[in-house]
From TrEMBL:
Keyword annotations of the record: Cobalamin biosynthesis, Lyase, Pyridoxal phosphate
Pathway where it operates: Cofactor biosynthesis; adenosylcobalamin biosynthesis
Essential cofactor(s): pyridoxal 5'-phosphate
Stretches assigned to the Aminotransferase class I/classII large domain: 24-349
Biological source species: Lentibacillus salinarum
The enzyme's E.C. designation: 4.1.1.81
Enzyme class: lyase
Gene this chain is encoded by: cobD
Protein name as catalogued: threonine-phosphate decarboxylase
Reactions catalysed: O-phospho-L-threonine + H(+) = (R)-1-aminopropan-2-yl phosphate + CO2
A Pfam family the protein falls into: Aminotran_1_2
InterPro entries named in the record: Aminotransferase_I/II_large, CobD, NHTrfase_class1_PyrdxlP-BS, PyrdxlP-dep_Trfase, PyrdxlP-dep_Trfase_major, PyrdxlP-dep_Trfase_small
CDD domains: AAT_like
Function: Decarboxylates L-threonine-O-3-phosphate to yield (R)-1-amino-2-propanol O-2-phosphate, the precursor for the linkage between the nucleotide loop and the corrin ring in cobalamin.
Amino acid sequence: MQLPAHGSNPDHLFKALGMEPPTKMVDFSVNTNPLGAPRAIKDHWQGWLEEIEDYPDPSALELKKTIAAHEGVAESHLLPGNGASELITLIARYLHGKQVLIIHPAFSEYESACRNENCTISYHIVHPPNWQLEKGALQQKIDAVDAVFFCHPNNPAGVQYDRLTIDWLIDACKQSKTLLVIDEAFYDFASNPVTFIHQAGRSRYLLVLRSLTKMYSIAGLRLGYLAGRAELLARIQISQPHWSINAIALKAGSLCLKDHQHSEDTRAYMTGERKRLFSFFRKNDFLHSPSAVNFYLIRDPSLDDQQELFMYLLRKGLVMRHTYNFPGLEGTWLRAAIKTEAENNLLMGALSEWKQGN
Ligand SMILES: Cc1ncc(COP(=O)(O)O)c(C=O)c1O
């Protein structure tokens, strides 16, 4: 059976498979913060109603100031966008017709955005269980392209590399005058977040991408930002529609970034749940990726293709993300988000039953 591509749209998945959606379901395919949006967003929501009557500030000045203070980078080194997705589309437009390397497995939108811009795409695939970058082979590929997309920590495995490895990658791209885009959409879920945002303003060959929709659970509002040299950002911004970020997202973004407690609580929660889930997987003979963030890959080693397990869980209303459209994984793993404690317990319960029946 061919499973449809999906992610955060379980009704579409059930419909495409001709299945009646169960009355209760848990969507483990969506990677946003299970603790929800910061309290301050809910408290201010009513007061923002009048914002919808005016055009938003097209230069997003207040938000830029907040991001600059939060990150310790210059405002001129920042470009906010309507979600990281918009910024990926703008980067792809800037790269129109160029040679692009994607370090896979990774977020599928780098490829679709670059294909839309007639870029020539090549892959460098990292493999489980150690997800090594294989520097020699990667160096050769970097030398042959104009740009590299690197998701760090990577989606779908959640792997976070050590600083030295990424420093090597940044340097290798700089030496060969290749633009490196590091997507840090999930970096702040790690107990020890690793970021390269401070280097982006100093190099013509480095862009760092961030999303606010994951940590602050505002996927419906859409907000992200890009860090890099001012001249490079200006060229990327040329294609951005005027008033691209709505007025409420501008307000909400500033509040989110000021709420340090929310991200600290989230990191502490994730650390505890990762420990609990991973110890259950080890005891029950499931393999998992060494994720540092809020999602992970899991597989039953007795199966090569995980479709049977995917369907088993789906029938119980537990929606995992299959990996057929992730180069390098091709259905041999399932991705799951870390959800609330009760939801994670449901998954562990279903996985125990699966093992008992197999
Ligand atoms: C790695 C990665 N980068 C960027 C995005 C897009 O994020 P946003 O919601 O800010 O557009 C996603 C969304 O799933 C993602 O997984």
